[in-house]
Amino acid sequence: MSWFSRFQAAIDGVAGIGAGVIAAKGGVKARIAAVLTSPAGQRDAMAVLRFAKPRLHLKQNLIRCYEADGSLLLTRAADFHAVIERQADFEVVYGPRMRMLTGGRDFFLGMQDGADYRRDTDAMRSIVKADDLVPVLAMARAEAATALAGTSADLPPMLSARIPALMVQQYFGVQMETEQLIADATAMFHFLFSDLQADPKVTAAAMAAKDRVNAAIDASKSGAGPETLLGRAVRAGAAGNSAFDADGIRANIIGIVIGAIPTLSKASCLAVEELLRRPAALAKARTLAAAGDEAGVADHLWEALRFSPVNPILYRRAHTDTRIGETEVAAGTMVLAANLSAMFDEAVVPHPNRFIPGRPWGVYALWGEGLHLCWGDRINKAILPAMLTPLLAKPGLRQISAPDGEGTPFPRHYRLAWG
Fold first, then answer.
1. Which of 152, 232, 240, 285 could form a disulfide with 417 if both were Cys (CB 3.0 to 4.6 A apart)?
2. In what side-by-side order are the strands of the sheet with 55-58?
3. Ordered DSSP codes for 351-398
4. Across 22-31, 34-43, 180-189, which has the greatest mean pLDDT?
5. What's this model's pTM, rounded to 2 decimal places?
């Protein structure tokens, strides 16, 4: 049955790509590019690959910001999960750029498993308390209510980037002007994860940003209270925890700052945009939001992000010569594990092209898995519905202009109206 379902999905994918190219504007190359860079076009293309060439070798390293010898694109769910789970065979590559941002110290997101990784992850878990999110979520709901008091909003500066920035200030403990904090966290995230072509302009922006944020972390230490992660890290370091010496504090705090703001903001924009494409799903989400049912809203957000995730592909580099199934993978190959495709694999996801809120959480591959599951996974699951429930409750919610990153992959503006 999986062979036939994949074959049918491939046929549908070809049809979808063709229809998209016909509907797009511009020359043939521009039309094809527009289709293949859209979430719908990527889903169609990956459906074709899952059937015809699920393990696609390419001579080029498509992730030029990190060294590798060729690429291997994987589109089936079993292969995606194998790569993410086999940490010893497929290594994270972010370390060199992460050290450029920290001044030399690794952040655990760029480390392989080992003593240093476990020291830092254990240390970061030790400064998180079970009830930390209570004031964070209260702040998110209050700020959202204020931002949405009128009949329109620009989502990132008023809500989706601003609220995570306030969380960084109030809970993480980093005191910095809000707009500059948003811009700098986004510039560093872009440099680390999304600057696939190693653009010198992106590097320059990230280097300027890291200087400002590291200076803000250092300046904030003396006034950071025990309710903040920074304050707890300072006290743990003073008590002898080597993960929180001066360099460790800077590396670990800047690491979670980088991950918090741009990902939450982009996820918010993508989820809302996807719901706006689906009137029936939006109507159901509005009913749940009007009743204050954040759990029900969350189910709709995760399903929307399955169709349009923040990152459609996770990349790892083969540490040694190895195999995926019967396919040989040479050491140094950049392995592109397509989480977008894995979430639509007909062999493991029932009715993948239907919008079905409330799917089992294991279907979703939104923030990594295993050893390098996003540190903010628990925060993401709570704060996204807290921020967006008041918005989705608005009657007549509609898009005024599409998300605009102003030349970056991260929306800086997304104008909406209601009523």
1. 152
2. 55-58, 71-74, 334-337, 314-318, 90-91
3. STTS--TT--GGG--SS--GGG--TTHHHHHHHHHHHHHHHHTSTT-E
4. 180-189
5. 0.93
Domains of the chain listed by start with CATH number: 86-310+366-417 (1.10.630.10)
User: pLDDT at position 370, please?
Assistant: 64
The answer to whether the CB of 174 falls within 8 A of the CB of 213 is: yes
* Alpha helices (H) in 221-293, listed in sequence order: 229-238, 246-276, 279-290
Dihedral (CA of 298, 303, 402, 73) sign? positive
**Cβ neighbour number for residue 352 with a 10 Å cutoff:** 21
Q: What three-state secondary structure class fits 316?
A: strand
H/E stretch holding 296 reads helix 294-307
pLDDT > 80? residue 238:
yes
Q: Rounded mean pLDDT of 405-414?
A: 93
In sequence order, the 6+-apart residues with CB closer than 8 A to the CB of 206 are: 100, 101, 187, 188, 190, 191, 192
Task: For residue 276, give both structure tokens.
Answer: 């706006």
Nearest to 404 by CA among 265, 209, 197, 260: 265
